[in-house]
Amino acid sequence: MKFAITALFAGLAVAENVTISNFLYVGVSGYDQISFSLSVDDINCGADHYVIGGMYACDNKAWTFQINEAQGHQIKLLHAVNGKTLSGDFDIKMNGPITTVRQQIGTSTAELN
Question: Which N-terminal residues, if any, form the signal peptide (predicted)?
Answer without folding.
Answer: 1-15
